[in-house]
What we know:
35% of the residues lie in helices and 24% in strands. It has helices spanning 38-48, 61-71, 126-140, 160-170, 181-188, 199-206, 211-220, 259-272, 277-292, 302-308; strands at residues 2-6, 10-17, 31-36, 53-60, 89-91, 94-96, 101-108, 114-118, 145-149, 175-178, 194-195, 225-229, 235-239, 242-247, 313-317. Strands 1, 4, 5, 6, 9, 10, 11, 12, 13, 14 and 15 form an eleven-stranded mixed β-sheet that branches. A four-stranded mixed β-sheet has the order 3-2-7-8.
Amino acid sequence: MILTVTLNTALDLTYDVPKLVPHTSHRVGDISERPGGKGLNVARVLSALGHETTVTGFAGGSTGAVLRELLAGPSPDGAGAPGTAPAPITDALVTVTGNTRRTIAVVDRTTGDTTQLNEPGPLVTADEWTAFLGRYEELLAGADAVALCGSLPPGIHVGAYAELVRPARAAGVPVLLDTSGEPLRRGIAARPDLIKPNADELAQLTGSRDPLRATRDARRRGAHGVIASLGPDGVLAVTPDGTWQARPPARVLGNPTGAGDSAVAGLLSGLVEGLGWPDRLRRAVALSTATVLAPTAGDFDRAAYEELLPRVVVEEHAPAA
């Protein structure tokens, strides 16, 4: 079982408009509604790949009830790996008094650009955090790997992810951290097995815009491995076993919402399957690119993934001097 943690879950709404023009009214075309937050996106892709997954974090109020109802429903049509039946996603979310947030993605059909509006999330009390910690440690006992994903809701201290990395490491469960800002800075000091920042998050952490230098610097700060998302240029991986860059065969246009989460699913599934780094990175890039091409944010295009996987280019870098 792979465990994903989403402390700031969301109900993701995607609105499709013919053309987004500021200061005007718009008629919305397609509307989609999905359980969201980074860890739930990761779990949905893992499920489509055939991996049993448990999700935990917080959910509350009427929005949280809708999120949990959708989470219990069938997987979206068209998502998944060829020939693979979706695996179950177990709901281990902890109920809170506050109302789960919503995120709204407005997709401009003309350009493919996306405008994202993110609510802050419910206030989590000290008692609710304590209840979550107990549930988390119980779940770690049956986990093959854990992903700690996304922003922190109000009420949760900035060292929360460091507090979650330590028991996973003590239990011998590989832990991937995917967050940003001060929670990432604090979390990396607890020595997670992997972090997966994007280029902006990496620059904020290290002060460097050079991807290779920044990724190596991030690893020196405590992470055993750093997988940097470089957008259309793929990913750069600096690990104890070597350094690689994986690139998609061509740039694509579409909605990038959830692409990084699909990359996390690729990395985690490859880890628990015992794949080598080049194959893990190849899967991560193919999944993230297929997510950009999917019609609904946070899903991936099955046919595109199958076609892209063998065409992802993985190059090894020479060791640092």
